[in-house]
Amino acid sequence: MHTSLEDKRRLLEDLELLDYAITKRIRLNSKVYQPDDPKMNHHILTENCLVSEACTKLQQHEIKKLFNKYQTERLELVKLLSDDDAILRDLKDLKDPKFEEGDFSSFLTICQSEIGVSEKDDCSEDHDIYDLFSSNNNYKEIKRNIENLENPVSKRTHWVENRTKSRRKLEKSILKSERYNVLSSYTSDLNLSVLFTPAEIFGSQLDLKAAYRQWLSLPRQNRFPLDSIPKYRHYLNQIKKRDETIEFDSPQYSLYLKELLSYLESYIQRSHPLEEHQSEIESTSQFECPELFCLACNKLFSKDSVYHSHLQGRKHLNASKKHMLILQMESKIATLFSKAEHLKIQLENTIHDTEREELLTVRERELEKQDESKTNKSTLTDTAPLSLFYGSDWKLISQKLNQDINDEDSSDEELDEKLTNPLNIPLGLDGRPIPFWLYKLKGLKYEFDCEICKSKFKGRGTFIKHFKDENHINGLRELGVERDFHDFRDLSKVEEVTTLLATIKAKTRNEAQFLDDSLQVEDDQGNAMSKKVYDQLSKQGLL
Q1: Last residue of a domain, which of 358, 377, 396?
Q2: Using an 8 Å Cβ cutoff, are 294 and 310 in contact?
Q3: Sorted alphabetically, which keywords does the UniProt record give (predicted)?
Q4: Mean pLDDT across the chain
Q5: Tens of pLDDT along 158-210?
Q6: Residue 211: inside a domain, yes or no?
Q7: Do residue 372 and residue 442 come from a single domain?
Q8: How many other C-beta atoms can be found within 10 angstroms of the C-beta atom of residue 164?
Q9: Pairing outcome for strands 293-294 and 299-300
Q10: Which has more confidence, 520 or 480?
Q11: pTM of the model
């Protein structure tokens, strides 16, 4: 016979387990949650330097999910406790003799028969542990014995000492693929590669490249010249300002603001899941603009008196009502950048990193990508070794397990560590310095400079290949080249590119003039003339 008491007991048990799980994670890794108020941070817990930032971010999202479940079940429990009718029904059911002598006793007999436990069996310890209605005087001792039994060190010690050679291959495959999840089974669906993009670097930078491309395509009164298109860095510096040339009443601009605001709000929740951001979102601010600029009308005034009289006019009030949604979204975006301290820091980090990447050469970018791929393999995302949580004992046991099995892998790693490159010789595809004869054959001792992309290259082959790189093509665009980039191949100086570009433009103009002059027409009297002259005379009425 089911009663609401069972639901209350289950909810109370879940709340206790959730509270213990959250407390345990904060105790093991104090970087997961640190109060903003310095008075609340007593620095009792020491930081675990072995846990990476990625693992910390993942555990923050895990605690957030556990906390949401805690809040949901707490509200459900409050609802059950406030239901007086359910309490009366439970009391009535408990007084029913069928509850004690009928259903409950038969259910207990079935359970004991299936498990094979009788009343005469010696199960005093289990009874003391699981009896919720008795006071266990030796509870701490019993709990300590259970924890010792569940210690992974004691479980593995016997297995290490008694393993045989016949199971060597099986153990090797198990240990190589063995990982210990930091996440619980309830939050095992969390994944940092889904929560963050690679450009966000686990919430340390912003990824606004999609918004930048959308911003470039917005309708404007004066379009950008093809030779001076703003770069991603310029967009980040002016993201808190209103571009006066944009047609702000267009639907494209409204869609741009909506997607930008949605991204910023989701990014704040993803980068700092355990903090409350409602106060930052509710406070109001506005886009940065000149002092006498009206955002509702998108108009700049020259005098203060004219500006204040405009604010009280009917035209301004109608424009404010018409563009209320756009002004609200702009206000929220400006508020997030001005009030959210974390977003300020992350925007500055993004700007600095973008400026640094623009100064890198092609070779430096390739080396940086290789370093990032190596660090990503070693970075903890959703797993971590048990030595982080169980101390050095487990670490010693795991070292004994891996000592004999990973002999071949360790020998390869020692060879890699012995490889040195004191002469700074270029590396081959295998990551090793190339031999000297190949160095001379490829002509790597000669350096070639390119003024267009502002880079230096070793070897003629590398220099020729770089003409197809995106960095070189962007440099040609900055010089005014719009198409036919293959015509400017093998040109590495700015003067050569500008001279050839002027020649091509002059040739194009001459061809257009020749086409205009080559087309002949006749008037009513049979006089032959070019079509251009005929159109001019007809407009003047001289024919």
Answers
A1: 377
A2: yes
A3: Metal-binding, Nucleus, Zinc, Zinc-finger
A4: 72
A5: 444 444 555 555 555 544 444 445 667 777 778 888 888 888 888 888 999 99
A6: yes
A7: no
A8: 7
A9: antiparallel
A10: 480
A11: 0.52
Phi, psi at 205, each rounded to 5°: -140, 165
476 and 334 in a common domain: no
Are 315 and 455 contained in the same domain? no
Name 386's Cβ contacts closer than 8 Å, sequence gap at least 6: 152, 180, 394, 398
In this prediction, residue 220 carries a pLDDT of 85
- Same domain membership, residue 325 and residue 449: no
Q: Is residue 117 part of a domain?
A: no
User: What distance in Å separates the CA atoms of residue 171 and residue 190, rounded to the nearest whole number?
Assistant: 29
Q: Which two tokens stand for residue 533?
A: 């002259």
Domain membership of residue 370 as a residue range: 192-276+283-377
Q: How many CB atoms lie within 10 A of CB 423?
A: 8
- Residue 349, in any domain of the structure: yes
- Is-contact 58 192, C-beta < 8 A? yes
Rg (CA), the chain: 37
Same domain, yes or no, for 368 and 450? no
**CB-count burial class (<10 Å; 0-12, 13-18, 19+) for 193:** exposed
In angstroms, the CA 122 to CA 151 distance is 25
314-359 confidence digits (pLDDT tens): 776 676 676 778 778 887 888 888 777 778 888 888 988 888 888 8
Q: Are residues 233 and 304 in the same domain?
A: yes
Identify the domain boundary among 377, 405, 420: 377
Q: Which two tokens mark 425?
A: 């010789």
Count of domains in the chain?
2
**Same structural domain, 349 and 270:** yes
The pLDDT tens digits of the residues spanning 137-167 come to 555 565 555 445 444 444 444 444 444 555 5
The rounded distance, in Å, linking the Cα atoms of 467 and 485 is 9
Specify whether 475 is located in the same domain as 347: no
- Does the CA dihedral 383-389-392-398 come out positive or negative? negative
Who contacts 487 (Cβ-Cβ below 8 Å, separation ≥6)?
Answer: 500, 504
Query: Please, what is the Cα angle at 15 between 9 and 17, to 5 degrees?
Result: 105
Burial of 51 (0-12, 13-18, 19+ CB in 10 A): buried
362 lies in a domain? Answer: yes
